[in-house]
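Memo to structure team: turn this sequence into structure tokens by end of day. - J.P.
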Amino acid sequence: MFKLIQLEVRKHKLFSYLKSIIIANLIIIATLALMYVTSETVDDLMFTSLDEAFKIIHILVKAVFMIFTAMIIVRVLIEEFKMKTIQVMFMYPLSRRQIILAKVMVIFSFALITISVSEVVLEGLLLGVNSIFPILTGEVTAPFIWRELMNIVMSSLAAAGISLIPIYFGMRKYSVSLTFISGIILSSLFNSNSNGYTLSSNLWISIIFVLIGLGVSWITIMKVQHKDIV
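Reply from structure team:
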């Protein structure tokens, strides 16, 4: 299975997306800075503490990379079925279930790694800048850092699971547009902020969405196993 995953990563040149991931993070940094500066000019700061800033980083990172993951779904899964190049892989002495499972694991891992690493890097940069220019309140202690790391792990797992849901819509007619649209809708729904509340901040709702994402992936695997590619 690990070799299959490695093959998928190399075949689709996923490491070539590193530049795009860095650019996306730079845009998030610029957005965060612009939000602070703009709100400061009207004397109505959007965030004044590290906790509030971290919540905004969580929302921005998940919103960006859940949509980014929809693009990976198209590249790794939908286009191969649409162009029928998946038939080549089905000629391998492996079950279809193993092949599709490897693809789903690549998609899930991409979402999990990009979201979690981006959040760690951006929050680390914010802590570094705030230690030099203390504009945000909040004491940085070991319990504070540990709690935030746990938040990153849990929210990244939830977002990665939810990012699998567009597979269902994309695989219905091997539709690229449906994959992107469903990814954008889910990202907007999951990360929309209403008076400081987001669906992603609710543990039980996140668990439900993750289970849906995993269920959708399993259904896809089972369907492909018995379906002819036409």
